[in-house]
């Protein structure tokens, strides 16, 4: 098998670190690995297959000889450096929101729409973490019964907001135990022992950007602008793993049993649903697992063709790093790169 020179941009961040782990765990055919970050990370190292790799400062000439570049360094960095990398011949898989709604940029979840990848499109967007796990589960249902409407409420882990957010939750828990003053800097309110119905900036209509992302990205990934989507995104005091309560309405009647069978046969999904045995997904037990878990599958009796589902996935893996590496694998398997 051919090996490829790979770069990870944002290599010291939470997602960047998981990208490196996923490349190693999945035995990605890496010829050489370049770890890139900001100037303040100079002197640090990353580990890949037991070897220490020096972190390099991200510069315009960083992508010479790089065939695949995994970006997780924020929108502004991606807007500047993704075009530079692509002009050097790199396929860029970007985890930020910078390119997701660009008409000319594929927004890809391999289980749903890997067919849109091509040699011509060298910048590829990795969707929002909450959107990824939802469409992985809903697309197989959509193919059978056509989804008309989605109502989703998310319960999102603090790791979705980065290292500082995880540290803030830990510090607040520690402060509570030791009777120290609890401080919040990352979140507008204390996150320990609390929930905050606010992720990203508020828009004029009262929705947050996170909620709007879920609406627009779902329609783009599933290639169906007719699907009506509404979302409420909530931050919860969980370190790792996003949970979602999802209500759908379909054109065609489909039973919970049929849905369970369809999902059980679908790639990347584990149906964990046996309420008699209290079997349903929870983020603590889905953390560090590559699959998306679904349970509490039941009819919504308030509408003609309604269903309720509970979806949980590791937001740092399938919601970010794993999905990006899977896209890179698709590029290789399809002979694109």
Give a topology summary.
Blueprint lengths: L3 E6 L4 H12 L4 E8 L7 E4 L2 E7 L10 E4 L3 H13 L3 E4 L15 H4 L9 E3 L3 H17 L1 E10 L6 H16 L30 H13 L6 E8 L6 E9 L5 H9 L4 E3 L11 H4 L5 E9 L5 E8 L3 H17 L4
Parallel strand pairs: 1-2, 1-5, 2-4, 5-6, 6-7, 8-9, 11-12
Antiparallel strand pairs: 3-4, 8-10, 10-13, 12-13
Protein structure class: alpha/beta
Strand content: 15-25%
CATH class of the largest domain: Alpha Beta
Percent helix, as a range, is 25-40%
Number of strands: 13
* Major beta-sheet overview: 7 strands, mixed
CATH architectural type of the largest domain = 2-Layer Sandwich
Largest sheet strand order: 3-4-2-1-5-6-7
Average pLDDT rating:
97
CATH topology call of the largest domain: Dihydrodipicolinate Reductase, domain 2
How many separate helices? 9
Rg for CA atoms? 20 Å
Write structural notes for this entry:
This protein has 337 residues and is of the alpha/beta class. The chain folds into two domains: 4-127 and 320-333, 3-Layer(aba) Sandwich (Rossmann fold); 131-315, Dihydrodipicolinate Reductase, domain 2, CATH 3.30.360. 31% of the residues lie in helices and 25% in strands. The protein is built from nine helices and 13 strands. The chain has helices spanning 14-25, 75-87, 110-113, 129-145, 163-178, 209-221, 256-264, 283-286, 317-333, and strands at 4-9, 30-37, 45-48, 51-57, 68-71, 91-94, 123-125, 147-156, 228-235, 242-250, 269-271, 292-300, 306-313. The strands form two sheets. A seven-stranded mixed sheet has the order 3-4-2-1-5-6-7, with helices on both faces. Strands 9-8-10-13-12-11 form a six-stranded mixed sheet. Strand 11, helix 8 and strand 12 form a beta-alpha-beta unit. Helix 4 (129-145) crosses helix 9 (317-333).
């Amino acid at each position: 098998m051919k090996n490829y020179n790979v770069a990870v941009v944002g290599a010291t961040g939470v997602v960047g670190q998981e990208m490196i782990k996923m490349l190693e765990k999945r035995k990605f055919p890496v010829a050489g690995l370049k770890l890139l970050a900001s100037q303040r990370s100079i002197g640090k190292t990353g580990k890949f297959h037991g070897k220490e790799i020096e972190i390099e400062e991200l510069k315009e000439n960083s992508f010479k000889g790089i065939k695949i570049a995994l970006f997780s360094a924020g929108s502004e960095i991606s807007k500047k450096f993704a075009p530079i990398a692509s002009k050097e011949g790199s396929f860029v898989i970007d985890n930020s929101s910078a390119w997701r709604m660009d008409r000319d940029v594929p927004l890809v979840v391999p289980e749903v729409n890997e067919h849109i990848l091509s040699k011509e499109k060298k910048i590829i967007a990795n969707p929002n973490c909450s959107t990824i796990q939802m469409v992985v589960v809903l697309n197989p249902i959509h193919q059978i019964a056509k989804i008309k409407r989605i109502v989703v409420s998310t319960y999102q882990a603090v790791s979705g907001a980065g290292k500082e957010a995880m540290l803030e939750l830990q510090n607040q828990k520690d402060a509570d135990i030791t009777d120290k003053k609890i401080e919040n800097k990352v979140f507008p309110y204390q996150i320990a022992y609390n929930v905050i119905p606010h992720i990203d900036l508020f828009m004029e209509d009262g929705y947050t950007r996170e909620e709007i992302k879920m609406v627009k990205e779902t329609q783009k990934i599933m290639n169906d602008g007719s699907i009506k989507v509404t979302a409420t995104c909530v931050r919860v005091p969980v370190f790792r793993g996003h949970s979602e309560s999802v209500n759908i309405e379909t054109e065609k009647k489909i039973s919970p049993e049929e849905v369970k069978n369809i999902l059980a046969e679908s790639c990347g999904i584990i149906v964990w649903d046996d309420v008699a045995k209290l079997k349903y997904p929870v983020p603590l037990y889905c953390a560090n697992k590559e699959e998306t878990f679904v349970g509490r599958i039941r009819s919504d009796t308030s509408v003609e063709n309604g269903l309720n589902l509970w979806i949980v996935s590791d937001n740092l893996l399938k919601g970010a790093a794993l999905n990006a590496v899977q896209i890179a694998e698709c590029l290789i398997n399809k002979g694109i790169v």
